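Need the bound structure for NAP, inputs here:
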Amino acid sequence: MRPFVHVNCAMSADGKIAGVERKQVRISSDEDKTRVKELRKRYDAILVGVGTVLADDPHLTVKELDYDTNPIRIVIDPRGRTPDDALVLDERAPTVMITSEDCEKEWDCEETIRFDGELCLSEILEKLAEEIGIESILVEGGGETIASFFKDGLVDRYTVFVGGLVIGGRTAPTPVDGDGWAVENGIGLVLKDVMILGNGAVLTFEPEKK
Ligand SMILES: NC(=O)c1ccc[n+]([C@@H]2O[C@H](COP(=O)([O-])OP(=O)(O)OC[C@H]3O[C@@H](n4cnc5c(N)ncnc54)[C@H](OP(=O)(O)O)[C@@H]3O)[C@@H](O)[C@H]2O)c1
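Answer from helper R.:
Posting the output first, comments after.
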């Protein structure tokens, strides 16, 4: 069985997750940062795409936890663009890199999973469950990665913090980028909860049952 997938991100009031330079912008309130820290503790793994590693160089850890207690970090990096000194590869937590058979890059990390041809997310998720025992994943971005999870119908919960700022810019990334898809009325979600957290609110959605 594949792991439970929860997508979490923070966007501005105009629906951007970063500026046009694709550099990290402080969107979350302090209260939301605390929520995300508690959320991370509840998941077996935290996943991002290589675009987020290159733009933000995140640790993807909970500071007070150690190597044995932090969630496993997972990076989707088909072409091997993650540099050896990326913080996501440090000793604070185990890291699993997902790359293609054609990629010659090797990382000093817990495990590297190589896929043949096109990446199939559902196959990768099953592998993560069967081989590593991962039962739940928090997907933290960016827009391309989140889009691929929605596109393949692999999102079980979506939480988005809407912060009190406007970023602007037609090329600024949004929570769900990618090429888009032609589905009448988009992908249906059911609003489960709204919570004000400082100068913003977190919305919780779950997929509409078909
Ligand atoms: N506000 C927030 O909550 C938040 C959170 C995270 C990131 N961000 C922002 O988001 C931006 C980065 O987002 P991004 O969309 O550029 O990058 P991204 O989603 O982090 O990474 C995208 C890349 O990862 C690989 N990838 C991911 N999913 C894949 C799939 N299903 N199949 C094949 N390859 C896959 C591809 O790499 P290749 O192209 O190398 O094949 C793809 O180009 C930055 O500006 C960052 O600051 C904001």
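Comments: The beta strands are 4-12, 45-49, 72-76, 95-100, 111-115, 136-141, 157-163, 189-196, 200-207. Residues 4-207 form a domain with the Dihydrofolate Reductase, subunit A fold (CATH 3.40.430.10).
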